[in-house]
Amino acid sequence: MKFDVTAGDITVRDTDAIVVNLFEGVTDPGGATGAVDRALDGAISGLVAAGEIKGKRGEVTIIHTLGKIAPSRVVVVGLGKSSVFDAEVVRSVSGETARRLQKIGVSRFSTIAHGAGIGGMDAAQSAQAIVEGTVLGLYEFDRFKSSKNNEKSVETVEIVEYDASKLAALQMGVDRGLVIADAVTICRNMVNEPGNRMTPSRMAERALKAADDSGLEIDVLDTPDLEALGMGAFLGVAQGSKEPPKLIVMKYDGDPENPENNLAIVGKGITFDSGGISIKPSANMGDMKGDMAGGAAVISAMKVIGQVGPKINVTGIVAATENMPGGGAQRPGDIVRTMSGKTIEIDNTDAEGRLVLADAVHYAHSQGIRRIVDIATLTGAMSIALGHICSGLFGSDQAFIDQVKESGDMAGERLWQLPTYNEYKEQYRSDVADIKNTGGRPAGSITGALIIGEFAGDAAWAHVDIAGTSFSRKTSGYTVKGGTGVMVRTLVKLAETLAGE
Ligand code: BES
Ligand code: MN
Ligand code: ZN
Asked: pLDDT digits over 374-407, tens only?
């Protein structure tokens, strides 16, 4: 798919469709929508008066122009209430519009930069959101389908702006949008690929490719390396599987003169979570192919960070393994020694994310990293608490937690902080080891988070639980059924925020 930026009058474009917009409650359209309305002798305002167009967020109305103007169709997309308008609305309506147009066989269309006129939005931001929404809204995971859904697909999207002085900003937004959308696509692909395809070794290959594409250093640690480091918790999870575990370490040196100006982004990379000996029920177990979504977000975000170049040193770490109940699998009751020296009693082998992250987060700390954020599909309890609307946010350092939260807000990915009171820690006390790996049902997401936090040492630490947000059961806006690619955008923004950009 190609995106062009052009100066001129959208009503005269020679294209399959032109896209204009309307805020809810507006009866007399202005700007480009007003110009198109006049060119169509009041067709849009007529439909508004008749109540057929309301401007509700995501409402898509297609009007055939029957030769009145050069473009054969006009699409009026609803932007919702102007008081709650933001880039997320643009992303979402762009996804909705693109899917509708692709469905009716449109291969090229022109759009105005939603919000950049009357909406008061920055032109670059609008263009970026259009590109992200369009590319991600049209995303399909069809590599294993012999016949594809869409014979005709959208090939060219043109953003048309009347005011030529905005072109440079629009182009900048398009370029950034393409980089981000490409990375989110890579992330979604990894999440959607089944466990037999997306093994730990394959994840490492994808990371090697990403590192190669954006000039990052990369190291993939194998079983002997993990043994030498004493990563007993990570290895304990891996021992039930035939697939060898991989600790993927990607490095971006954006501020080599200040090695302390650093950040680690650490991802849970369970390529399939059967639960191990504490085996999961079979209903929906297949969804656990996506238990590496945190790791996929880390690899994809590292790729973007290498491309956009913020002034900060970022290390991406992914603990990739399967959690399987093979003959060599660890047992409930086993005790493992982590790299940090702390011992963990395995109460439930299905609480494996915190085990692999215990070693991965400690590894980050052992590398002298001062700020660590981990991303994980950690607990089913997360979607009980927050549903699928926002990810859970936890941590030890409020200033850092706030920075993660703000980065999410800016990127259009919502995070909601949960408490981490010390009293919760009693729930995972063990009689025979330093701690056990579960804290019981009450506040399951919080105890899971706190167990990981035990291994962050004195680094500022934050944890994002994406169990409810990494996978979607429905298609809407720029979200498509399956992997969402959540947190790629937030992690990139976080690196930039910490770099002061
Ligand atoms: N990967 C799961 C969490 C999960 C569940 C993610 C559903 C996405 C959708 C995790 O490894 C797990 O099994 N957690 C257990 C923890 C419990 C045993 C303490 C859970 O949530 O039941
Ligand atoms: Mn599990
Ligand atoms: Zn898991």
From this structure: 999 999 999 999 999 999 999 999 999 999 999 9
Which listed ligand is nearest to 427 at the C-alpha? 1
Catalytic residue among 38, 54, 68, 280: 280
Is 354 a known active-site residue?
A: yes
pLDDT single digits (tens) 266-313: 999 999 999 999 999 999 999 999 999 999 999 999 999 999 999 999
436 catalytically annotated: no
User: Is residue 108 within 8 Å of residue 13, measured between CB atoms?
Assistant: no
Phi, psi angles (nearest 5°) of residue 213: -65, -35
Please indicate whether residue 191, judged by its CB atom, sits closer than 6 Å to ligand 1: no
Distance CA(29)–CA(415), nearest Å, equals 35
Q: Which two tokens stand for residue 113?
A: 């930069």
Distance between CA atoms of 63 and 40, rounded to whole angstroms? 10
pLDDT band at 148 (very low <50, low <70, confident <90, very high): confident
* pLDDT greater than 80 at residue 450: yes
| Residue nearest atom 13 in ligand 1 by C-alpha distance | 350
Which residues, listed in sequence order, are joined to residue 405 by a DSSP beta bridge? none
Strands (E), 418-465: 435-436, 460-465
Q: Which atom of ligand 1 is nearest to the CA of 270?
A: 1
Q: In angstroms, what is the span from residue 417 Cα to ligand 1's centroid? A: 19
- Does residue 151 surpass a pLDDT of 80? no
What mean pLDDT value characterizes the chain? 98
Alpha helix positions (H), 193-282: 200-213, 223-229, 232-238
Side-chain half-sphere of 196: how many Cα atoms within 13 Å?
2
**Ligand 1 within 6 A of CB of 322:** no
- Distance CA(458)–CA(315), nearest Å, equals 17
CA 484, CA 470: separation in Å to the nearest integer? 5
Scan for tokens 């609307």, then name that residue: 389
Pick from 247, 298, 353, 359: nearest CA to 494? 298
Query: Bridge-partner residues for 461, per DSSP?
Result: 372
Digit-coded pLDDT (tens) for 63-95 = 999 999 999 999 999 999 999 999 999 999 999
CA distances from 405 to 78, 129, 167, 221 (A): 29, 20, 32, 31
The full length of the chain comes to 501
